[in-house]
Specification:
The structure holds two protein chains of two kinds. Chain A is an alpha/beta fold. Chain A is 46% helix and 14% strand. Chain B has a two-stranded antiparallel sheet with strand order 1-2. Classes of the chains: A alpha/beta, B mainly alpha.
Chain lengths: 331, 274
């Protein structure tokens, strides 16, 4: 026996959904090369964004993990809260340290999924040399997806619209003094080897960091190994620093970034890695939730969310909750 | 002060001329291999590891440690002896020690960047602060525990206060002072691992750069640091025994000798009460 009102509501929902589908199909594909297949779906239309608790998900357990820095906490919270909203029983392990630790936990089944960067996963887990990573985001994602599935039975869900790659930054004053170069090529010409760049100790010997600047851009700035990043710039310890493209500090207008015009840095888009148990628990609807909540995460949005944690010192849990509400995923 | 080390091999089209690490090797075998021979870095493009690089890193590691230890000793021992001699400042000596142990070295590194900038000085200051507490406490206690009768006897013989401190209290306190230096040195050598965070190369580099050096580098460097630390400890232990005045050795060594030479017991007793 079907209740007439319920029938009408579900009909409405189907209609709305199909409208949303039609509305975003075209332009979505055009501007989001990295998001890849599968994605699509119920964005744009506010009402259709809402994640509804699916009774079919009841009792299905899923443990979300993350590494131990701001962006990872926020992403972990976003995925966890979204899955919770969809009716899953979610546990969180959002402090797993380095990617090696997190990945091991994933393989052992202590967590079911965690967000990882495509470039990091390829180099750290599958020993792909940095120079060999495809610079095309979709290609590098596909390589990761295939390798992860083959070697570890781990599924790499479609990527986020944003990536968190290295970015060469300076204060806006330094940029002005050099005549506001737009690209690293221009910067290399103007800055010369008298200026210095700071970066994590690791940067010194990475071909996608200092070595890359030397070789690809023929630029040999003095290297200051330090974890200070933007503080190094503020305190005059270095003229430039290797930042990350979604750093909260970049949401402030104090710093200038330079475009990587020779594609020195490989793609670092986020893909939610899920193990076998995780995929079973998630099912179609769970995967859709993951893809759905990451859709609005452009570089700009991610910077803003990170800045709320890194600069405004808000709790990642709160930041994620606000994000889900602002984007219309929850009420 | 310490420059960037020249890398053998180097990128370019052909890639570096050193072998890729064996992915099948067990953790310790791989780490040992990292210590004895060069290999291509994890992320590719450079050669890392091997005795050459580890030697360079080790030299830098030890220079920053030595500088910090020298500074700590020069600054602390005189103050400790003086405080111990006048018998005041126990509160200071103990508090400095306790507070010093509570402050994380890593935080100090960041803190001092604002005053001295990033670099050698920064690391030396931070390691010096780490080294001071055990030396200060041990020096103070070492001088305080010197037999008052010995001090009074010296005074009675007409030694001035400065002379008493230098010729009586310092020698008698030396074993404890060296104990403090030993504790500090072990802590400093182990902690110089964080130097790369302030632009000083050290054996911490392989540990802090997992994507370059890999697990083998982390474990290999950790083993090297552990060995150097143990050698430091053992070396200073020998030195500590060396500087111990014969009279103080009596209680430990004397009994063994006493069995063989009853006459020595007599002299020993004398020096004990002297």
């Amino acid at each position: 026996m079907t209740h007439p009102i319920r029938a009408v509501t579900s009909l409405l929902a189907v209609l709305l959904l199909s409208v949303a589908f039609a509305a975003c199909g075209g332009d979505d594909e055009a501007e989001q090369q990295p998001a890849g297949e599968g994605g699509g779906g119920e964005t744009t239309e506010q009402s259709a964004n809402l994640i509804e608790s699916d009774p079919a998900n009841e009792g299905k357990e899923f443990t979300v993990g993350s590494k131990n820095f701001a962006e990872q906490y926020v992403l972990g919270e976003i995925y966890a809260q979204a899955l919770e909203a969809a009716g899953f029983t979610v546990r969180k392990q959002l402090d797993l340290g380095s990617e090696q630790v997190a990945y091991r936990q994933l393989k052992r089944g202590n967590i079911n999924g965690y967000p990882e960067y495509s470039g990091t996963a390829l180099t750290s887990f599958y020993r792909v040399k940095i120079d060999d990573i495809p610079r095309d985001p979709q290609e590098s994602y596909e390589q990761l997806r295939d390798t992860a599935a083959e070697e570890d039975n781990i599924t790499a869900l479609p990527q986020t619209p944003f990536q968190n790659t290295y970015v060469v930054t300076s204060t806006t004053e330094t940029a002005e003094e050099l005549g506001n170069p737009e690209t690293i090529s221009e910067l290399a010409e103007k800055a010369g080897s008298d200026m210095s760049i700071s970066g994590f100790p690791e940067c010194r010997q990475r071909t996608d960091c200092l070595l890359g600047l030397n070789e690809t851009y023929n630029w040999e700035p003095e290297f200051v190994s330090s974890e200070g990043q933007y503080e190094d710039l503020d305190q005059g310890q270095a003229d430039f620093t290797f930042g990350f493209s979604t750093d909260g500090s970049l949401a402030l207008d104090k710093y200038a970034t330079y475009e990587d015009d020779k594609q020195l840095f490989p793609p670092y888009y986020v893909t939610f890695l899920v193990n076998e148990d995780g995929m079973e628990a998630l099912g179609e609807s769970g995967q859709q939730v993951i893809e759905q909540v990451q859709e609005p995460l452009t570089e700009e949005v991610m910077r803003e969310l990170n800045s709320r944690v890194q600069i405004d010192k808000q709790e990642p849990e709160q930041v994620a909750r606000d994000y889900l509400r602002e984007a219309g995923f929850t009420e | 002060v310490i420059g960037v080390f020249a890398q053998a091999g180097g990128g370019g089209g052909g890639g570096p001329d050193c072998p890729s690490p064996d992915p099948q090797a067990g953790a310790f075998v791989d780490a040992f291999d990292f210590i004895v021979s060069q290999r291509e870095s994890i992320s590719g493009g450079v050669c890392v590891g091997g005795p050459g690089e580890l030697w360079d890193l080790g030299v830098s590691h030890m220079s920053v440690s030595l500088a910090a230890m020298a500074l700590a000793i020069v600054l602390t021992v005189p103050i400790g002896i003086w405080l111990g001699h006048i018998g005041k400042g126990e509160f200071l000596a103990v508090s400095v020690s306790n507070i010093g142990r509570a402050v994380p070295t890593l935080a100090l590194l960041a803190f001092f960047v604002a005053f001295v900038g990033i670099g050698f000085t920064n690391v030396v200051i931070v390691l010096t602060l780490l080294a001071i507490p055990p030396i200060l406490t041990n020096t103070y206690v070492g001088v305080r525990q010197v037999d008052q009768e010995a001090v009074n006897a010296a005074r009675g013989m007409g030694l001035r206060e400065g002379q008493i401190a230098r010729r009586v209290e310092l020698p008698l306190a030396l074993p404890l002072i060296f104990g403090g230096i030993r504790t500090s040195a072990v802590a400093v050598v182990a902690t110089a691992t964080i130097a790369p965070l302030a632009n000083v190369q050290s054996l911490g580099n392989p540990i802090l750069e997992p994507q370059t050096y890999g697990n083998a580098g982390q474990l290999g460097a950790a083993i090297v640091i552990a060995v150097i630390t143990l050698i430091t400890d053992a070396g200073l232990g020998l030195a500590q025994r060396g500087v111990t005045p014969r009279g103080l050795k009596v209680s430990a060594v004397g009994q063994e000798k006493a069995r063989r030479n009853p006459f020595l017991t007599l002299t020993s007793r004398r020096s004990e009460t002297a």
